[in-house]
Amino acid sequence: MNNDQAPIANILTDSPLCFTPKELSERIADLSGLIAAGNDSHGAKAVKEHGVKGALQLAQEGYKPLFADWLPFLRSAGAPGLRQCTDVRSAGAAGLRPYSAAAEREWTRPGPDGTADKTPDGTAENARLLQKTLLRIMSTLDDTCVIHRVGYQRAQGVKEEAKALLDDFSEDGLKEMKKRYDSEGISPGGAADMLALTILIDSLTQ
Description:
Blueprint: H1 6-13, H2 21-32, H3 42-50, H4 55-60, H5 64-75, H6 88-91, H7 101-106, H8 124-140, H9 144-150, H10 152-167, H11 171-184, H12 189-204
């Protein structure tokens, strides 16, 4: 390990990976503060041209919207089976459910219409909660993936449409949105990344 890597290793290993949200937010900010910003990515271009916050800027702020909004929203309905905060130094695998063939068989992947009726614990309720959490993120995040694909103004429209669907949620509305966005080439990859991160952080925080 060289001298540049040592601070990162210290941040990752000097305590168990089971935190309060405030502790984890601060650690993420500390760690990402060691990363230099790039200039040639699509996200970096959106940050420069439109003044939005990209992935690195959000991390350097400790993912404030995640901890203040998206994580509380995810937890608002209880989300049984999603949370497992564990000391990984004794349990391993970052507090996450270990892989097993049985767990793999429980998972129903999204079908052609983009929806799924099961999550790893087999409940439709969790699937709907994750769909709604994704819409919540889409409605508040300046998604640089969407900005790159369809421009800043259309990306603002996507945020408004996500909020409207969340306020009046239905499976049919979700399917219609997916069909329309497929035809427009809209892919909210940034929001999807933030959903995955929100689920991970939910498993690592008390």
